[in-house]
Amino acid sequence: MVSSQPKYDLIREVGRGSYGVVYEAVIRKTSARVAVKKIRCHAPENVELALREFWALSSIKSQHPNVIHLEECILQKDGMVQKMSHGSNSSLYLQLVETSLKGEIAFDPRSAYYLWFVMDFCDGGDMNEYLLSRKPNRKTNTSFMLQLSSALAFLHKNQIIHRDLKPDNILISQSRLDTSDLEPTLKVADFGLSKVCSAFGQNPEEPVSVNKCFLSTACGTDFYMAPEVWEGHYTAKADIFALGIIIWAMLERITFIDTETKKELLGSYVKQGTEIVPVGEALLENPKMELLIPVKKKSMNGRMKQLIKEMLAANPQDRPDAFELELRLVQIAFKDSSWET
């Protein structure tokens, strides 16, 4: 259990959030760059978020180029470390699970517990930073839409509902760029609010569809939350809604200022007088409300307009699932030579 030599060297801090710090690091043996997220397990809320992310990413048996990959998770107690695996019967792991389930610390609070997630290193910031620092580009928009729909179809196929899709949680990797005409790789990240749907249907060999796995915990970020999430009864179709908000905002460069951080963020909304209201909240109040899509003329063609409207339908049953969405975006991208028709 005790580590003799550290496997990683931390280089610099690259991000800090409410429940963890992210570092750029290198693997000592290979000098390969990785991201290491350090999470202090001092509160039940931190433990729950960390375990949700661990359970989601460790449940994926294959890799996808547009989903962040968890290389390994290290559990540290004071000076001792051990590699953590899903379903482990290690006492340290079980204490964390008990903490998450009971909502109170189930281990000696005098000890320092940390989880270290070793993941892909993304050198291009997040989707907000990348797009808002550049002029709008149709080729980039098309590439990003295809990558995001592919990632979401992969997650839903693997029974994972993300529940917090937003540009802040989509990272940019530019390391593979060796020519100027290639677009960067997107990676969906931050699975702290995700849910793995492990329930089974009538046939035990076939897991229940994520679109039939109903959740009740209202969570996410206001401007990307579907109306049914505000109500507290939703499925994976809430992810489709969030992606609709992101794509609409990306195509038309719709932004708002976050009241807490004062950052400019990509995200579409509804104007009510002088106030801006999240689309999901407005649709919950008025499900028959007609969204003004597009806001700007010639920002998208008729097929794209129709698809975004369906993604943002008040009734989740009227939205495409992730697999239909991926197919339709591929058709739009490769059949249309212009966005202006």
TrEMBL record:
GO biological processes: negative regulation of G2/MI transition of meiotic cell cycle
Catalyses which reaction(s): L-seryl-[protein] + ATP = O-phospho-L-seryl-[protein] + ADP + H(+); L-threonyl-[protein] + ATP = O-phospho-L-threonyl-[protein] + ADP + H(+)
PROSITE patterns assigned: PROTEIN_KINASE_ATP, PROTEIN_KINASE_DOM, PROTEIN_KINASE_ST
Binding site for ATP: 38
Pfam families tied to this protein: Pkinase
Subcellular localization, as worded in the UniProt entry: Nucleus
Major subcellular location class: nucleus
Molecular function per GO: ATP binding; protein serine/threonine kinase activity
EC number, as in UniProt: 2.7.11.1
Protein name (record): Serine/threonine-protein kinase PDIK1L
Species in which this protein is naturally found: Balaenoptera physalus (Fin whale)
